[in-house]
């Protein structure tokens, strides 16, 4: 089964809504000018909450083929949860995707595996496709190896759902995020393969083969091809380098570098 590569830009807490318009517009133009084929390689951006309405309006008006997502959602649908954002609101804004369990959420907002699981359930309830982020810290890498923690996190995030709709997994070693350090393409592919195996055990082989698994952590246009050359890696989740339209579109054009 062929899986459409997925190139995701996580803007994190960068760019206000006016700056977001400029970057989204530039990215759209840059990819249009190089004749990017979105059916062969999907591109999605994940701006901050306060930018979403503005970027969505622009995307609508200009008929963007770039897909949109949010960086988080509440596990609850509505009510007394000050500061939280419901999946229902994101769906109303035509968001297609939502990041869940990014290591910065796990670390700074104490999101446990249970919370991540409940957020995945909320994404399914609201027809959002969760991009479930998993990855080990340096300490965990040293004590447990690369795959143990991501596998545990994947299993926890997918446990106990009545029905499981489409989801994406992003394997991001915490020690590689924003540090310039990267997992080798071989190591990243090996962990992605184990994650696929675990999905197969949990949800069946067909689902495992259909699920896109991304690598993330200091991905740039200069190193992206190494990851995507492996059939196990179906895309990348990009932080810092997604804030530069030329660099990010270079990442989306990875096929040029690997000659497919
Ligand atoms: P980075 O971030 O590309 O800046 O390392 C990746 C991420 O956190 O998703």
Bound molecules: 2-phosphoglycolic acid
The number of distinct β-strands equals 8
What is the CATH architecture term? Alpha-Beta Barrel
The CATH topology: TIM Barrel
Task: Please estimate the helix content.
Answer: 40-55%
Strand order of the largest sheet: 1-2-3-4-5-6-7-8
Explain what the structure shows.
The chain has one domain (6-258): Alpha-Beta Barrel (TIM Barrel), CATH 3.20.20.70. Helices cover 44% and strands 14% of the residues. It has helices at 17-33, 49-61, 87-92, 103-108, 113-125, 138-144, 148-158, 185-203, 205-210, 224-228, 245-252, 255-258, and strands at residues 6-10, 42-46, 67-70, 97-100, 129-134, 168-171, 212-216, 235-238. The longest helix is centred in the last third of the chain and has 19 residues, at 185-203. Bound molecules: 2-phosphoglycolic acid (PGA). Residues 10, 172, 177-178, 216-219, 237-241 line the site of 2-phosphoglycolic acid.
Q: Which terms summarize this structure?
A:
binds 2-phosphoglycolic acid, 12 helices, 44% helix, eight-stranded parallel beta barrel, globular, 260 residues, alpha/beta
